[in-house]
Amino acid sequence: MSFDIVKQFDSPAWLAEISEKLDRKMTFGAEKARDKDYIPYTTENGDWAKSGITWWTNGFWPAGMWQMYLMTGKALYRQAACRAEEMLDEALRDFKSLHHDVGFMWLISAGVHWALEKDEKSFDRALFAAGTLAARYNPNGFLRAWNGDGKEGWAIVDCMMNLSLLYWASNVTGDPRYRLIAMRHADTTLREFVRPDGSCNHIVIFDPVTGEHLEHPAGQGAYSGSSWSRGQAWGLYGFTLSYLNTGKAEYLDAAKRIANYFISQIADDFIPRCDFRQPAEPDIRDNAAGNIAACGLLELSRAVPESEAPMYYRAAVSILKAQEARCADWSEAQPAIFTKCTASYSNGHHITMNYADYYFIEAVNKLRGEKLLFWRPYPVSH
Ligand code: GLY
Questions:
Q1: Per the residue annotation, which of 119, 124, 158, 187 is the catalytic one?
Q2: Pick from 53, 115, 234, 334: CA 20 to 30 A from residue 204's CA?
């Protein structure tokens, strides 16, 4: 028996209130997005700001729409999810511009559409995306993250979340190659990124020919050797998902190690700093890191032995409640919810980001008992 996160949740009034607020705000956001020729990512001047079609966050909008559809049954959300998925075909055609974030883009959009409705076109999109991710594999044991000359040996911890697309592809095709690539990359990440204290590098640059670990720059964190909180969250949730997909105990241990570190860094107010090792000033936070970690912690609490679960579960709930209370904008002044997100430490200022909102909705739906895990989209009966 795994820990029951739904039965354990002792604030049904909070959940009901938040679900209602989400429905109001996401309807507002979806109506604002209806006539746009791009997919919402961030906001400016009270509206969605324009972003390009290959931008890595473009799966989170349709995924959020599917989450809201499952929460409410409202057709508006389904239509918005399908429209965005079709818009993304332009990015699939421009596959040379694609990067390792095709998991974020197609698993939780097209993959979820397939899981819910057995849509064959959606299946093809997700499988094509898995092929492009597998093609980024360097036989030295890592997936290349980004494009551009000189980046042939760059791998990043965020990629742990994209591995879910490869596990899915092996499961739906019966071909183990995708899963084997994912596990090689996870093994490399565990060895080269995760430090003994549970903190992680954001980027590791390998020699693309020999596989030698050359350097680990600051990336989106404060400095080399620092601890970018969103990177820790990607690792936490990503290793949890690798464990769920493979049963490999080392991945569960890695997820616990990163989670223990993450929890130790947020206990003051449960709103993660952008980098856990940043100077005291400026006080830059990252709601995305918090909401991603909360989702990972909820899944982790279901994966560990029941006696270990409450610590992870309580941390997740504390993050969600604290971030909602102090950083959520439920007004119609602008269409996004979470206001204290940061693109990177060096970027230095707070913005809104569609995936901070997405992971909050995912977490709320988990607490409501939603059975479909979007990162493992297989048909489930609702
Ligand atoms: N995966 C890029 C980021 O988290 O900003």
A1: 158
A2: 53
- pLDDT tens, residue by residue, 39-75: 999 999 999 999 999 999 999 999 999 999 999 999 9
Among the listed residues 95, 111, 120, 119, the one whose alpha carbon sits nearest the alpha carbon of residue 167: 111
Residue 118 belongs to some domain of the structure: yes
Task: Locate the ligand 1 atom nearest the alpha carbon of residue 234 and give its number.
Answer: 4
Query: HSE of 305 in the Cβ direction (CA atoms, 13 Å)?
Result: 4
As a whole number of angstroms, the longest Cα–Cα distance in the chain is 56
pLDDT of 189 reads 99
Q: What local confidence, expressed as pLDDT, does residue 1 receive?
A: 78
Phi, psi of 146 (to 5 degrees): -120, 165
Q: Which residue among 35, 94, 101, 286 is the active-site one?
A: 101
Pocket probe for ligand 1: among 154, 193, 201, 220, the residue whose CB has the most ligand atoms within 8 Å is 220
267 within some domain: yes
CATH of the domain at 94: 1.50.10.10
Q: Is residue 97 part of a domain?
A: yes
Give the structural domain span for 47.
5-368
158 is catalytic: yes
**Span 151-188, pLDDT tens digits:** 999 999 999 999 999 999 999 999 999 999 999 999 99
373 in any annotated domain: no
Looking from the CA of residue 355, the nearest atom of ligand 1 is 4
